[in-house]
């Protein structure tokens, strides 16, 4: 049950997409305006409750969990304006990325870069540091020009590089710790075509050419299949066209039948009989074939993800990527781990956001996944040991065990963020267990 302002009388249980996090909020509200959102926050404070906004639940951490007031943004769903002259779009917090992409494309516009799924709300994606891969273009948050934030006292703060710049520097990736994002203004550009080149490649070749592949392509990423020496590489670059989308049948076979249907079956078998996983991995990697196509940006950047999993992802300095990936492969090979999901590697340029995983340094992202419901603790612990030895920063929305002590050393601007939190939310209206761990008391 969801109410507008008064809240539910009976507690309901909320679960995230992966099913590994749940919460039982005292009250659930769905404000339809900034004024209603502000009123909900003031009421929570008066009742002595904490308050957290939650999007579509695609984070694997408890960043949005609360036993107090859960704020659902589905009615904050307006695209307020598109300004072609300024090259911006202003949207409310609850707009899903897939709706934004379609609306922009209809106007001949596009975001510059995005992650590989588009189910998240714009506010949720930005606040946890959602990113794709890009030599020159960064995360969703790095494309924000203006941010509208409702503070703990119900006041509304607009921030940008010119207005309240110290808040803007932190709140673009704010973890829900500074206030509730009510609207975002993104930079946009004329819609563009990407030529996608997907090609199997041997692991050792990818390692030898990683720097070259990262430098020569606007968007480079690869997947390594554990228990094999095989990778699948993806190179996406802007194109003058003409558009050559994947044929409907080929796209359905690759992206739905193989990547979702057959993969789901393989994961189910692997969970039941782990000993089959290395053999399945070898067959899967050999089944890969090269493909080339050309389509508008968001249709190339994103893919359907219907097989549910849990994930850990670390950001390491770009120059440490090859060493960290080789150590990860060696660890898997000498262990008893049976890993059915490929390891995903992406890149991003340095940015200027205080708690961005790419803050101040060119970055490589290394992500590991386990089929939902499978035991992951030993594998993720081993991965985390490797990544932290390389100055890794954990993705804020993905499983990790780091605390404020570690993160204060990992982020040179950590103290800047926590000082701002003390100023904007001294009563900790937006606190929860996750924030206490990663930001401190």
What does this entry look like structurally?
The chain has helices at residues 34-46, 97-106, 122-127, 165-171, 203-216, 248-272, 277-286, 297-301, 321-333, 377-389, 404-410, 414-424, 433-439, and strands at residues 14-15, 22-23, 27-29, 51-53, 69-71, 79-83, 88-92, 109-110, 144-150, 156-160, 180-187, 189-190, 193-202, 219-224, 230-239, 291-296, 309-317, 343-348, 363-371, 393-394. It is an alpha+beta fold and 441 residues long. Strands 16-13-15-14-18-19-17-20 form an eight-stranded antiparallel beta sheet, with helices on both faces. Strands 6-7-11-9-10 form a five-stranded antiparallel beta sheet. Helix 9 packs antiparallel against helix 10 (377-389). The longest helix is centred in the middle third of the chain and has 25 residues, at 248-272. The two termini are 32 Å apart.
Lateral arrangement of strands in the main beta sheet: 16-13-15-14-18-19-17-20
Structural class: alpha+beta
What are the segments in which pLDDT stays under 50 over at least 5 consecutive residues? none
Number of strands: 20
Radius of gyration: 21 Å
Calculate the mean pLDDT score and round it.
93
Question: What proportion strand?
Answer: 15-25%
Largest sheet: 8 strands, antiparallel
Total of helices: 13
Helical percentage = 25-40%
Name its key features.
441 residues; globular; 20 strands; alpha+beta; 5-stranded antiparallel beta sheet
Topology:
Layout: E1 14-15, E2 22-23, E3 27-29, H1 34-46, E4 51-53, E5 69-71, E6 79-83, E7 88-92, H2 97-106, E8 109-110, H3 122-127, E9 144-150, E10 156-160, H4 165-171, E11 180-187, E12 189-190, E13 193-202, H5 203-216, E14 219-224, E15 230-239, H6 248-272, H7 277-286, E16 291-296, H8 297-301, E17 309-317, H9 321-333, E18 343-348, E19 363-371, H10 377-389, E20 393-394, H11 404-410, H12 414-424, H13 433-439
Parallel strand pairs: 3-5, 4-5
Antiparallel strand pairs: 1-2, 6-7, 7-11, 8-12, 9-10, 9-11, 13-15, 13-16, 14-15, 14-18, 17-19, 17-20, 18-19
């Amino acid at each position: 049950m969801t109410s507008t302002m008064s809240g539910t009388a009976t507690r309901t249980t909320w679960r995230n997409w992966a099913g590994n996090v749940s919460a039982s909020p005292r009250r659930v509200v769905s404000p339809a305006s900034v004024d209603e959102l502000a009123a909900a926050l003031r009421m929570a404070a008066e009742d002595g409750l904490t308050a957290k906004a939650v999007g579509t639940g695609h984070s694997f951490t408890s960043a949005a969990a609360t036993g107090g007031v859960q704020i659902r943004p589905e009615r904050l769903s307006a695209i307020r304006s598109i300004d072609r002259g300024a090259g911006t779009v202003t949207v409310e917090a609850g707009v899903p990325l897939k709706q934004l992409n379609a609306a922009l494309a209809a106007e001949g516009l596009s975001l510059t870069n995005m992650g590989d799924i588009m189910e998240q709300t714009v506010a949720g994606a930005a606040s946890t540091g959602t990113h794709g891969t890009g030599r020159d273009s960064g995360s969703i948050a790095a494309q924000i020009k203006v941010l509208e934030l409702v503070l703990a006292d119900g006041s509304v703060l607009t921030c940008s590089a010119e207005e309240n710049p110290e808040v803007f520097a932190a709140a673009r990736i704010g973890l829900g710790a500074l206030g509730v994002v009510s609207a975002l203004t993104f930079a946009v550009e004329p819609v563009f075509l990407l030529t996608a080149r997907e090609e199997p490649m041997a692991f050792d070749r990818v390692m030898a050419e990683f720097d070259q592949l990262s430098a020569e392509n606007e968007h480079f990423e690869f997947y390594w299949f554990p228990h094999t020496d095989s990778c699948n590489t993806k190179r996406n670059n802007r194109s003058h066209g003409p558009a050559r989308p994947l044929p409907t049948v080929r796209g359905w076979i690759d992206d739905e039948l193989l990547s979702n249907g057959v993969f789901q079956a393989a994961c189910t078998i692997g969970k039941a009989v782990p000993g089959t996983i290395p053999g399945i991995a070898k067959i899967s990697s050999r089944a890969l074939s090269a493909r080339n196509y050309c389509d508008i940006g968001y249709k190339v950047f994103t893919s359907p993800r219907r097989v549910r999993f849990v994930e850990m992802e670390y950001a390491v300095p770009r120059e440490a990527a090859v060493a960290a990936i080789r150590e990860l492969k060696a660890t898997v090979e000498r262990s008893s781990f049976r890993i059915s999901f490929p390891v995903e590697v992406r890149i991003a340029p340095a940015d200027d956001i205080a708690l961005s995983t790419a803050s101040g340094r060119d970055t490589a992202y290394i992500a590991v996944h386990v089929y939902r419901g499978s035991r992951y603790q030993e594998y993720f612990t081993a991965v985390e040991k490797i990544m932290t030895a390389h100055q890794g920063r954990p993705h804020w929305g993905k499983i990790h065990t780091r605390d404020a002590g570690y993160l204060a050393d990992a982020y040179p601007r950590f103290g800047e963020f926590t000082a701002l939190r003390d100023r904007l939310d001294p009563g900790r209206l937006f606190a929860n267990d996750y924030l206490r761990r990663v930001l401190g008391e």
